[in-house]
Design a protein that fits this description.
The protein has an eight-stranded mixed sheet with strand order 3-2-1-4-5-8-6-7. The longest helix has 22 residues. It has one domain: Rossmann fold (3-Layer(aba) Sandwich). With 257 residues, it is α/β, with parallel strands linked by helices.
């Protein structure tokens, strides 16, 4: 009997790391507390959302004056967590599917969306399941998830497979540098206490060249790579040319002939 796509994802060569899933499942109820364990993501979210909106408007040629400029487009949020990005994307008109391998997290996201009156398709599955089913999406997000996957190559292949021809993928992750180790782990987890200790494993951080190569191998073209830097004086994030710690990448799939 062949294993299900979800089970296969947890096996050799799959993207799901059981240890990572257990860690985030234990934090499921904290997602929507802006002063809680996910405070750094709440601080980062305004920059992420602005970046996503601007890049998708330009790529899909949509009218920025519209309240729901992305109506008619499907978006997949891989590693959606509690829905911090999925909900704003739904409000912008996308038909959003949010997936996360932690069932507890999906339950939190689903309950919050329902309370907000948002119709978001949340599923406790790995991206391989959607790729195996041939589900197509116009836009794919992989935000702060790549540094937690078990197999980068398998993840890139599955993420590219669910992206429609002509679609855009946007990823955000952490670079594997000494600076990232110092700031994202020692600083954020041990000194400032912004994140629970053990949230990140520096060995799983991904260099921009590695992520770009993985996406190119699966037929995507890299359109942009930009850094994201925290300004302690303003207590906010901004785009930066410095890729040493946090960075975002956009990639597109060629239109069908």
């Amino acid at each position: 009997m062949n294993p299900s796509p979800e089970a296969a994802a947890r096996g050799p060569g799959g993207t799901v790391d059981p240890g990572e899933i257990a860690r985030f499942a234990a934090l499921a109820e904290a997602w929507w507390d802006p002063r809680g364990k996910f405070r750094p993501l709440h601080k980062l979210n305004p920059l992420r959302l602005q970046f996503l909106r601007e890049r998708f408007l330009a790529h899909f040629g949509r009218d920025a004056a519209l309240l729901s400029p992305f109506s008619g487009l499907r978006l997949l949020d891989i590693g959606c967590g509690g829905g911090l990005v999925a909900e704003p994307m739904a409000r912008l008109g996308f038909a959003v599917t949010g997936i996360d391998a932690a069932a507890e997290t999906v339950m939190t996201a689903r309950a919050h969306a329902e309370a907000a009156g948002l119709a978001i398709d949340y599923r406790a599955v790995a991206v391989e399941a959607l790729a195996a089913a041939g589900e197509p999406f116009d836009a794919v997000l992989a935000l702060e998830i790549i540094e937690h996957v078990a197999d980068l190559g398998a993840f890139c292949a599955a993420a590219a497979a669910v992206l429609k021809p002509g679609g855009m993928l946007i990823a955000a992750t952490l670079n594997r540098t000494a600076k990232a180790w110092l700031l994202a782990i020692i600083g954020a987890e041990y000194v400032l206490g912004w994140l629970p200790r053990g949230t990140h494993d520096w060995r799983k951080f991904v260099r921009p060249s590695e992520l770009a190569a993985g996406l190119r191998r699966n037929g995507l073209r890299i359109a942009e790579i930009t850094g994201a830097a925290y300004d302690p004086l303003a207590d906010s994030w901004r785009l930066s040319r410095d890729l040493d710690v946090n960075y975002m990448m956009t990639a597109v799939k060629a239109p069908a002939l």
